[in-house]
Amino acid sequence: MKIDQERARVTDSEVTATGMDEIRVLGGYRLQGKVAAGGSKNATLPLLAATLLAPGTYRFTNVPELKDVSTMLEMLSRFGIKSHRTGTHDLTVDSTGSHNAEAPYELVKTMRASIYVLGPLLARYGEARVSLPGGCAWGPRPVDLHIRSMEQLGAEVDIDHGYIVARAPNGLRGGNISFDVSSVGATGNLLMAAATAAGRTTVENAACEPEIQALCEFLVSMGARITGICRPQLVIEGVPELHPADAPMIPDRIEVGTLLVAAAITGGDVEVTGVDPTHLGATLSKLEAAGSSIEVAPDSVRIRAPERPEPISVTTRPFPGFPTDMQAQFMALLSVGNGASTIVDTIYHDRFTHVAELMRLGADIRLEGNTAHVRGLPALSGAPVMATDLRASAALILAGLVAGGETRVSRVYHLDRGYERLEQKLQALGASIRRVKA
Ligand code: UD1
């Protein structure tokens, strides 16, 4: 108890000193009702980067209002690309006057997905200078596959003072790429670079995530020739040039999953709308295995959860497997499960910074390599905790929904990178939650 009070004082002073908001949750309210999910962050970022590929005007709808989206727009502004929102979720991007420039460390270090400009810059200008992102909260997260695939398309790549410097003065040419590891980002970069490369590019072990499918479809609407969409073997026939296009952003399957877990952890009854259930297979089947009843409609999912979830085993895998981006939220859920669960992260072996914070709420979790053994408890107890990354911050809020008393989650700037007004959505479902502005 003494430790909690001390931590609370530290958190308060941090909030005031560094201008960081805090989320306060009073646990114990069962969630009920209907809530709409927004557009996908991870689909929006590569589609915005793709506007570098062809000058002109693009209109996007269902674009989430998130820090990561504004970081990408700021990055694009460095290349002369203008953008403005015409409604809350409608965005016009004008790349008519775009030019080549450096993707600076100050932006790339705040958002790794900035590396999505590498392929388009190289394809359009024959040269790209993009900062290396560096590590992240849960491990090294290399970009070797991005670099190697640019080399396979004929680029010369050097690392210069922390920057990737890629050159293809005579243009890129098609190549045969086989990824050792399925990578969303490297597949996206390769697709954008290969779309206008001379000749055919074949890709083995391409990522099949819905966000990559959305990028493929967008590139096709810009004039690209891609076959094998949704499959690990892709073929791209290079075209001389692309043209601008418009697109709606696909629903955010991770936001949907997070809202469903919010319902599940409180024993609630919630319908999430604005959903593509075909993107949610693994998440829904794990929620069912944990005892929830799931009702799927063409663009919504309703969950009715038991008082306590049943214990389950979860292993993260590339799509259509269980997403690593839902691992932390399920850890929160299983912390109050009716028995012992295991969670294995095969994508990011160190993505467990949320464990220590969940344990501050009383969770019983033992880490063994990339496996978390979670012994479910009937109750958690509210405490000040610190968000360490985007999905970890969501997990702490979810745990706060069932922890006795108040949970104060600091450093919620992580949350704002990828969740649009999560606290308001949860509040509308009956949670006692508020944001305390610094
Ligand atoms: C994307 C998502 C992120 C999600 C991750 C895995 C975006 C903006 N982010 O990240 O939310 O958690 O997919 O689903 O869409 N790897 C390498 N070398 C590389 C690139 C990746 O070894 O050059 C490894 C990674 O360390 C990891 C695996 O490949 O083990 C998958 O990572 P990847 O799919 O590339 O993740 P991101 O695209 O960065």
Q: Any low-confidence stretches, pLDDT <50, length ≥5?
A: 1-19
Say which CATH homologous superfamily of the largest domain is assigned: Enolpyruvate transferase domain
Name the ligand types: uridine-diphosphate-N-acetylglucosamine
What would CATH call the class of the largest domain?
Alpha Beta
Give the neighbour order of strands across the main sheet: 23-25-1-26
How many angstroms does the end-to-end distance come to?
25 Å
Number of domains: 2
Query: Main beta sheet, described?
Result: 4 strands, mixed
Work out the helix count: 15
Number of strands: 26
**How much strand content do the residues show?**
25-35%
What is the structural class?
A: alpha/beta
CATH topology of the largest domain: UDP-n-acetylglucosamine1-carboxyvinyl-transferase, Chain
Helix content: 25-40%
* Chain-averaged pLDDT: 94
The radius of gyration over CA amounts to 22 Å
CATH architecture of the largest domain: Alpha-beta prism
Shape: globular
Structural description of this entry:
It is a single chain. With 438 residues, this protein is an alpha/beta fold. It has two domains: 4-37 and 251-436, Enolpyruvate transferase domain (UDP-n-acetylglucosamine1-carboxyvinyl-transferase, Chain); 41-248, Alpha-beta prism (UDP-n-acetylglucosamine1-carboxyvinyl-transferase, Chain), CATH 3.65.10. It is built from 15 helices and 26 strands. It has a four-stranded mixed sheet with strand order 23-25-1-26, sandwiched between helices. The protein has a four-stranded mixed sheet with strand order 2-15-17-16. Strands 4-5-3-14 form a four-stranded mixed sheet, covered by helices on one side. α7 runs parallel beside α8 (210-221) and α12 (353-360) runs parallel beside α13 (390-402). The longest helix is centred in the N-terminal third of the chain and has 17 residues, at 2-18. The chain is globular and about 65 Å long. The relative contact order is 0.15. Bound molecules: uridine-diphosphate-N-acetylglucosamine (UD1). Residues 42, 45, 112-113, 141-146, 181, 183-186, 207, 211, 324-325, 347-348 line the site of uridine-diphosphate-N-acetylglucosamine. Uridine-diphosphate-N-acetylglucosamine (UD1) is lined by residues 42, 45, 112-113, 141-146, 181, 183-186, 207, 211, 324-325, 347-348.
